[in-house]
Write a structure and sequence with these properties.
The structure is a homodimer of 127-residue chains. With 127 residues, the first copy, chain A, is mainly alpha-helical. Chain A is built from five helices and two strands. Chains A and B meet through α3 and α5 of A and α3 and α5 of B. Chain A binds a DNA duplex (30 and 30 nucleotides) through α2. Chains A, B: This is DNA-binding transcriptional regulator, MerR family.
DNA sequence: GCTTGCCTTCTCATTGATGAGAAGGTTTCA
DNA sequence: TGAAACCTTCTCATCAATGAGAAGGCAAGC
């Protein structure tokens, strides 16, 4: 598919899809006329990129971890692909992500607890 | 305490503490000479702001939810404080945070699963 | 063939979170 | 009194992600 269709199907502006390519997050083929040509899987890939960006990861981090985020296919499973430095990077990124998860979960719970408490107070007061 | 001490104790540059004040996330008192004066609780507050910023929330969102993130004290518990619009805002923010948590958890799990798979492959291969 | 719509690249602008420095007032301590 | 360490405000710069437009090539339909 071309960039317009990918944009429509993901809701991400074509401008941004070109930017993600510039950042090496996407690597579309090119048609003979120079148009970008994306495989079907690009839809999922773009959604994944958006989710990670919205979660506060930078394109730099996403670029480095995205090869390992796909469904487990045997291509990446060969230990040879994984230098010790890369393994460390992945472990530390997982830890940083975990910190974010904890912080966000904690604060989500506080918001919900507040709402629940107000609800209970309303009930109790018979309003 | 003054801005320098707060900066040292939180590891956040004084420049940023002034910025958070500009963004209405902090409201220090002023000494007679004009110096900012922070209460002890500001240390915790700053850490909370940092965690949320690092998790990808904007100062705008943080400003709107931060009054409800404190330990439950009865000050905020009066339902009168909570207009229906504000309750909706809080619910939707909680939902958005939840989405981030899910996205991040999913990808953290994939990274860890990848690492585990490689580890298992190494063991199996007797390397 | 011309119009319309989609594509290309390039460039300029903006926004939010930061870094950094200047110029000057205050406190402390020797 | 003078130096050192703090504080103030103001300003300019940067970086990542994004918006937006110009200028022009390609393609499908009337």
């Amino acid at each position: 598919m071309r960039i317009g269709e990918l944009s429509r199907r993901t809701g991400v502006p074509a401008r941004m899809l070109r930017y993600y390519e510039e950042q090496d997050l996407l690597r579309p083929d090119r048609a003979v006329n120079g148009y970008r040509v994306y495989p079907e899987a690009a839809v999922y890939r773009v959604q994944q990129i958006r989710g990670l960006l919205d979660s506060g990861l930078t394109t730099d981090i996403i670029r480095r971890i995205i090869p390992f985020l796909d469904r487990p296919d045997d291509i990446h499973l060969h230990p040879d692909c994984l230098t010790p430095e890369l393994a460390d990077l992945l472990r530390s990124e997982a830890a940083r992500i975990q910190q974010r998860v904890e912080c966000l979960s904690r604060n989500r719970d506080r918001i919900l607890a507040y709402l629940a408490a107000v609800e209970a107070a309303k009930q109790g007061a018979g309003c």
